[in-house]
Protein: Phosphomethylpyrimidine kinase
Amino acid sequence: MVIGGLDPTGGAGLLRDSWTAQRVAPTRPVVAVATALTDQGRGRPARAWVPPLATVRAELDRVGALAEGGAIAAVKIGMVPEAAAGAVLDLLTRLRALGSPTRPRVVLDPVARASDGGSLGASPTSALALILASDLCTPNRDERGLFAGHEASVRAAGVAWLDKAVEGAGAGRVCDRLVLPDGRARSYLRPRVEGPDPRGTGCALATALACGLAEGWSLERATKAAIAWLDEARRHLHRGPDGRPHLAGPPGSRSRSGASAS
Structure:
């Protein structure tokens, strides 16, 4: 289950989430709900439009019903505009009320701004509420500020988070750090993948993580597998319709790889 904004270029958002899930967990069906339609790419500040809120709520209510029936194993949430934040939070509250093993695990990849600029996400207050209702948060460095100073509350709510590209990894290396609700941390130090920085890596990583959790894996195992998958995927880029390097498209697509994205 993926919830977020629709980026028609496929570089990020729901298309990137869906393609990632198809590659990482090809036997699992994907259900998607769009919280926004976006216009982004080619260096322009991004813009977003929220579909009719009644439509968004109806789709999220359908997701809740599917989850209550045990048909959804994990949920990945990306861009949630302020206008849709209440509806998404209502869904997360509904999911949290489910007992195991029915309750799906929720991975939140908060979106505050697009890579080319432009505000897209919920207000800081709404974003924090969404974080506290999830199981895992995967912010970038800027989005990490959404819960800076609230780490104790986040852990008390049973929420883990993944700090990406933490400082001090050393030349030619990169380190992500998973912080668990009990305060334990697990670091994933590895060689940095050379080459251009593609769009949508945050979306892809969070979705791959959700796929691992859908298999019943621990947070540590799902994180390790998702990081390894993304590192390999970054070695096979192509140029997207927005002129930026993209990860590969859907399975079976004839994406050019390697130097064509440089």
Q: What stands out?
A: Confidence is low (pLDDT under 50) at residues 256-262. The helical segments are 13-24, 53-68, 82-96, 124-132, 151-156, 201-214, 219-233. The CA atoms of residues 22 and 29 lie 8 Å apart.
